[in-house]
Amino acid sequence: MSSGGVICVFMDSLVTIDDASLSRFVRNILQAAGVPPRRAELVSDSLVSASLRGVDSHGVHLLPHYMSQIRKGNIDVGTDGRIISESGSCLLYDGEHGFGQCVSAVCCGHAARLARGHGTGMVVARNSNHFGAAAFWAQRISAEGMIGIVMCNASPSVPPWQGRDGRIGTNPLCVSVPSTDTGGWLLDMATTTVALNRIVKAAANGEPCVPAGWATDSDGVPTTDTQVALRGLLMPLGGYKGSGLGLMIEVLCAVLSGGAMSTEVGGLHNLERSMNTSQMFLAIDVTRFVSAQEFQSRMERLIRTVKSARPAPGYNEVLVAGDPEWRSEASRRANGIPIDGALRERLRVLACDSGVEIPDSLRRHP
Length: 366
Ligand SMILES: NC(=O)c1ccc[n+]([C@@H]2O[C@H](COP(=O)([O-])OP(=O)(O)OC[C@H]3O[C@@H](n4cnc5c(N)ncnc54)[C@H](O)[C@@H]3O)[C@@H](O)[C@H]2O)c1
What we know:
By secondary structure, the protein is of the alpha+beta class. Among the domains are: 15-72 and 336-363, Malate/L-lactate/L-sulpholactate dehydrogenase, four-helix barrel (Hypothetical Oxidoreductase Yiak, Chain: A, domain 1), CATH 1.10.1530; 82-192 and 236-288, Malate/L-lactate/L-sulpholactate dehydrogenase, NADPH binding domain (Ribosomal Protein S8, Chain: A, domain 1). The chain contains twelve helices and 14 strands. The chain has helices at residues 19-32, 37-52, 63-71, 100-118, 134-142, 196-204, 226-231, 240-257, 292-307, 323-335, 341-354, 360-363, and strands at residues 2-3, 6-7, 15-17, 82-87, 90-94, 120-128, 146-152, 173-176, 186-189, 215-216, 222-223, 233-234, 277-285, 337-339. A hairpin with a 2-residue loop joins β4 and β5 (90-94). The protein is globular, with a radius of gyration of 20 Å. The model is unreliable at 1-11 (pLDDT under 50). The structure holds nicotinamide-adenine-dinucleotide. Nicotinamide-adenine-dinucleotide binds at residues 55, 57-58, 130-131, 133-135, 152, 154, 170, 172, 174, 187-190, 194-195, 198, 319-322, 324-325.
């Protein structure tokens, strides 16, 4: 099979690729679709960062979906959005259906700027698109020495507690603190048991079952069948509490921004309409409360204290949020990012369609 002069070879085994080569490949695919170089680099950085951190559901796995959204005209690759209003430490932004990553980068910059002047800065954006893993954006804010809190709404794939129809998204919540010597606490989680893309990825990999507690069928009956789960609904995290958190995020993102809410929100897997996602970026300047050094030493003490708990039976250590991803990042930077057969085939098709050369490591058998 070949296209655009590129020789395409079908392979179905797991391979690894270094992050620089993968970034280059993703950038090239995006640029071939007309995405300007700076924007292509930003989107690529966010996807490869998630792949490095082991958050595969929100890594390069998303590229084929982004490409479908671009082709359908749901993502406007020519805009970063615009400010609607600014008042004190609050800023309202219109993403104008640009890449979620491009909108988020601008919004994070404004949130940090406002926090430098006011102690806190809060930006809410409407008419945005999928921004990948929330951690990439909260980390941008915490890299400025501030606490970064980022949330977004998503397609209504989650029934409210005691309901059987999707009304809330997987609405992620991320909190990142200025990094500490202990690796940094970084909480990044969907408000469902798992993010939707974990099920999409399980299906793409041909896994017949997902764990109990992840999903229900379309009638609200719990299921472990991957295909049924794919057509069904996601379970809110911890029952009515997750349902409440998801709704809180809808309030902070969509009610405040004037953006699409609940069933008005499109989805990455729905090409029939724009996503119309709303996002919230909050920056808190810790030095308005304690010195940067004191914040750091108190964070380290807190994490040490938490980790001093004896491990429960079946475990040999206590972790805090962020630990699994830091470890994955260190390992994948050294040993490469694993790309499974299903993803490799999808990347191969994208490369063929775009006339982009496939990196050697995605061609070779291990
Ligand atoms: N853009 C969107 O629309 C959207 C929607 C939903 C989720 N997401 C993203 O999906 C990604 C995955 O979300 P998820 O909920 O499946 O993540 P997850 O369940 O893998 O991890 C959630 C959090 O738990 C922490 N954690 C994991 N194991 C731990 C342990 N043993 N001890 C202590 N902490 C531990 C992780 O560090 C992480 O901070 C996130 O990056 C999120 O931003 C994006």
